[in-house]
Structure formats: structure tokens, C-alpha cells
Design a protein that fits this description.
The protein is an alpha+beta fold. It has two domains: about 15-180, 3-Layer(aba) Sandwich (Creatine Amidinohydrolase, Chain A, domain 1), CATH 3.40.350.10; about 185-449, Alpha-Beta Complex (Creatine Amidinohydrolase), CATH 3.90.230.10. The protein is built from 13 helices and 21 strands. It has helices at about 15-30, 60-65, 90-100, 105-110, 120-130, 145-160, 175-180, 185-210, 215-230, 295-310, 320-335, 345-350, 435-445, and strands at about 35-40, 45, 50, 70-75, 85, 115-120, 135-140, 170-175, 235, 240-245, 265-270, 270-275, 275-280, 280-285, 375, 380, 390, 395, 410-415, 415-420, 425-430. Strands 6-5-4-1-7-8 form a six-stranded mixed β-sheet, with helices on both faces. It has a three-stranded antiparallel β-sheet with strand order 9-12-13. A hairpin with a 2-residue loop joins strand 2 (about 45) and strand 3. The radius of gyration is 25 Å and the shape is elongated. About 40% of the residues are buried. It binds glycine and manganese (II) ion (MN) (2 copies). The site of one manganese (II) ion has 5 residues, from loops. This is Xaa-Pro aminopeptidase.
């Protein structure tokens, strides 16, 4: 490896990125070819000279592996160079303050791209590089910077067209094309996703071990984030939820400031980002290590719903099947407990269960926690194929209501694992943390585990 490269920041094996670009270019060619333009995410100011921690654009990273801000990618079907990066250059003064940069000269070799130019040359170089492309793919109606580039590029191409090939006649949304690719993970991604999942699972184990009455929600959050960082994850892949007692009934609770009490449950929804890839795990367990009977009843019901959803994940099933399987189990359980009335079919039809279960059972997972790619197309749920990764996260959230026994009020329970669709069914990436009630109780009794 070239000693000038920012050490450890770029992958040595570039084949996955090259394959993705080749596959994308092949898809552009099918429709007659053209050029694809994609910027990475901007840096965002937090206040007074500080920025939010930088996170690259997921599509951009997926195609380049490049992790620095201020960059555009150009892919072209019609001639070489087919892959061009516009990026910031080396700058000793800036690097002294802000950190190392890959730079223009090193970028082609480090990223496996055919050419690189300084970002400052983007407007000047684009007309010559895009001339002759019959169509353009770029993020449409996304932000003013992209729109402004296009407003400068198209007139330049039209001027050029007087003496040469016509300007592109069609615009397409680049995001939709890339999103559909990202729905199916390659082997390189699955390795990173398994690592992300394993780190997150161990963070949940740690939270279970250190939990005891009197600690604050933020203490468990701190343990979780420490475990993420200790194993090389960049940090949480979404704001960590540590919700004791009734806080668990607030679906996106992130205050994490309450003190945990004996006799209550705590719901933790926490996942990390490892080399860009998210994990997403929820466990709900007793603060003092022992489920009370009403808690255990509902916990086992949610677990049964999750098992039914997991059993419904296989190639040929649809994205909706796990949700429907989970809802059936939850509704039957709520009818048996007397929380709902009428028949199973009536409750499903009238969706009366939504008082207790108001969210979906899963979403795609990948570079983004709610990953790219439609779940429904042409009004129909997407058919599952091997390589897709989705979460399985049924829950129950019991309100204070006269028609519900008081023992169950304010219980919030969710169980969430990450499932990879395989040839025969699915494989859970996140089971290094226990899920059965007895196994959780056993782990919590053995502090040294
Ligand atoms: N933690 C976000 C989610 O479960 O969807
Ligand atoms: Mn989730
Ligand atoms: Mn989650």
C-alpha cells in the first residue's frame, strides 16, 4: 500500500466496488447508455466553527469506497475513462487541522477508478466528459447544489452540441437505480454486516450484565457505545434508545435520562455502524433480572410473533409476509388475554390491534438503518431473494386504559433481530445476545459472563 494513503481508511480489496460500478454501467447501457453523476454528502455546520461528525453519502460510498467530503463521481458508458472522481486535493495546511486526505494523485489507484481531478475543475471538465451521452442519471430534485450543477452543465452541453454530438435528451433518477442494487447485499457487504451485528449483540449483552435497579438509562447507553467503539465501530447507526418502564411505550424515546427501577422492564434499541454498515437490535429485559408474570406473558407473546415472522422469511415470500405472520400471532394473543374482542379475522380486518402494535415488523438494513430500496413496487410487496437483509421487530405497547388490566399498563416490549435471506430461509445475524426469557435471566445472574 502506498504510504501516502491515509492509513487504514481505504479498503485494500477493491473488487466489490468495481463490480458494483460495472453492474451499474451495464444497466445504463441497456437503456442506450449515458453518464451518471453523483455527489457525496456535504459537511454540515453544527455551530461556531464546528461540524457534525462527517458521514458520507451511502450511494457514493457503495460505488467508490471514498469517505471524504467534497467529491463527485462520474460514470460513463460511452468511452474511457468510465469512472472519474472529482475530489479535494492534498493540502498540508488543511490536513494539519482536519486530518489526512487521499488527494487527487493517489485516488485512482487507491479506489480502482480510471481518473481523478480536483473538485474545482468539475464545472470546466464536465461538458467535455459528458458530451455525447444520450442520457444523464443524477439525484433528481434533491438539493440546490445538484440542481445548480445541472443548470450550468446542460446549457454548456447545448452550446457544444452546435459543433458536436447532441446534448442528453433524457434525465433519470440515479438514486432509484442504485437503491434497487443495494437491496441485495454482496459477500463483501455481508461480512461487514455480520461484524456490525456481532458488535451490537455484544453491546446488548454488556447492557444486560451491568443493568441493576438505580442505574440511569444513560449508564446503559454509555456501556453500549463504549462496546461499539472498543470493537472499531464508528458509533451508533441511529440514536440509541434505552427506555425504562413506561418510556418504552414512546417508540422513538431517546432522552435516556430516567433512573431504572426494580420490577420494571427496560427496552434497548441499539445498533452500530461498522465500515458504513448498520446493525439494529432491540432487547427488552427486567431491570432486576427477573420477569414478573404479566411481563413474561407479553414477552413470550412478542417472541412467538417474532418466531412466526422469522419462519415466514424465505426466497419467494414477500416483504409483507413476516409482518402478517407476526400480526396474526399478536392478535390471537391479545384476543386470548381479552385486550381485543371479536374474531381473529375481524380484529385483523378492522386493525383494532393498532392500539397495541402500531408499527411495521421490519425494514431493509444495510448502509442505512432504514436501507435503500422500495419494499413495494407497483402496489405489490417485493418478493424476497437471497442476499436481502431485513429486520424482524414485532412489539407490544400497552396504554393505560380501563379495558386493560392494570398489571399490564405501560408495558412496552420489542424484540428485534436482523435476518439475511438465504437459499432456504433466513439466517439471523444478531443472535450473539440471548432472546429467550430464561436465557436473559441466566445471563443477568452471571455478571462475569
Ligand atoms: N432503531 C430503528 C428501528 O428499529 O427501526
Ligand atoms: Mn429496526
Ligand atoms: Mn431498532
Amino acid at each position: 500500500m502506498n504510504p501516502d494513503f491515509p492509513v487504514g481508511r481505504y479498503h485494500e480489496d477493491l473488487s466489490a466496488f468495481a463490480k458494483r460500478r460495472a453492474s451499474l454501467l451495464a444497466q445504463l447501457e441497456v437503456t442506450g447508455g449515458g453518464a451518471l453523476l453523483l455527489p457525496t454528502a456535504p459537511e454540515r455546520i453544527r455551530n461556531g466553527g464546528t461540524t457534525y461528525p462527517y458521514r458520507f453519502d451511502s450511494d457514493f460510498y457503495y460505488l467508490t469506497g471514498y469517505i471524504e467530503p467534497d467529491a463527485w463521481l462520474l460514470l460513463r458508458t460511452h468511452e474511457s475513462p468510465r469512472s472519474v472522481l472529482f475530489c479535494r486535493d492534498r493540502d498540508p495546511e488543511k490536513e494539519l487541522w482536519e486530518g489526512r486526505r487521499l488527494g487527487v494523485a493517489a485516488a485512482p489507484q487507491a479506489l480502482g477508478l480510471e481518473a481523478a481531478f480536483p473538485l474545482a475543475e468539475l464545472d470546466a471538465k464536465l461538458p467535455e466528459l459528458v458530451a455525447g451521452a444520450p442520457a444523464l442519471w443524477l439525484p433528481l430534485a434533491e438539493n440546490e447544489e445538484i440542481d445548480a450543477r445541472l443548470r450550468r452543465l446542460l446549457p454548456a452541453l447545448r452550446t457544444k452540441a452546435r459543433l458536436g454530438p447532441p446534448a442528453p435528451a433524457t434525465l433519470h433518477d440515479a438514486r432509484a437505480l442504485i437503491a434497487r442494487m443495494r437491496r441485495i447485499k454482496d459477500a463483501f457487504e455481508l461480512e461487514l454486516m455480520q461484524r456490525s451485528a456481532t458488535i451490537a449483540a455484544h453491546a446488548h449483552r454488556r447492557a444486560m450484565r451491568v443493568c441493576r435497579p438505580g442505574v440511569h438509562e444513560y449508564t446503559l447507553e454509555a456501556e453500549i457505545i463504549a462496546e461499539f467503539r472498543r470493537h472499531g465501530a464508528q458509533g451508533p447507526s441511529y440514536p440509541t434508545i434505552v427506555a425504562g418502564g413506561a418510556n418504552a411505550c414512546i417508540l422513538h424515546y431517546t432522552d435516556n435520562r430516567s433512573r431504572l427501577k426494580a420490577g420494571e422492564l427496560v427496552l434497548i434499541d441499539a445498533g452500530c455502524e461498522y465500515d458504513g454498515y448498520a446493525s439494529d437490535i432491540t432487547r427488552t429485559f427486567p431491570v432486576d433480572g427477573r420477569f414478573r408474570p404479566p411481563q413474561r406473558l407479553l414477552y413470550d407473546l412478542v417472541l412467538a410473533a417474532q418466531e412466526a415472522a422469522i419462519a415466514a422469511i424465505r426466497p419467494g415470500a414477500t416483504f409483507d409476509d413476516p409482518h402478517q405472520a407476526a400480526v396474526r400471532v399478536l392478535v390471537q394473543g391479545l384476543l386470548d388475554l381479552g385486550f381485543l374482542s371479536g374474531s381473529l379475522d375481524e380484529a385483523l380486518e378492522r386493525q383494532t390491534y393498532k392500539r397495541f402494535y402500531m408499527h411495521r415488523t421490519g425494514h431493509w438494513l444495510g448502509l442505512d438503518v432504514h436501507d435503500a430500496g422500495p419494499t413495494h413496487e407497483n402496489g405489490l410487496p417485493v418478493t424476497l431473494v437471497p442476499g436481502m437483509v431485513l429486520t424482524v421487530e414485532p412489539g407490544l405497547y400497552v396504554p393505560e386504559a380501563d379495558d386493560v388490566p392494570r398489571d399490564f399498563w405501560n408495558l412496552g416490549i420489542r424484540i428485534e433481530d436482523d435476518a439475511l435471506v438465504t437459499e432456504r430461509g433466513c439466517r439471523l445475524l444478531t443472535r450473539d445476545v440471548p432472546v429467550a426469557a430464561e436465557a436473559i435471566e441466566a445471563l443477568m445472574q452471571h455478571e462475569s459472563d
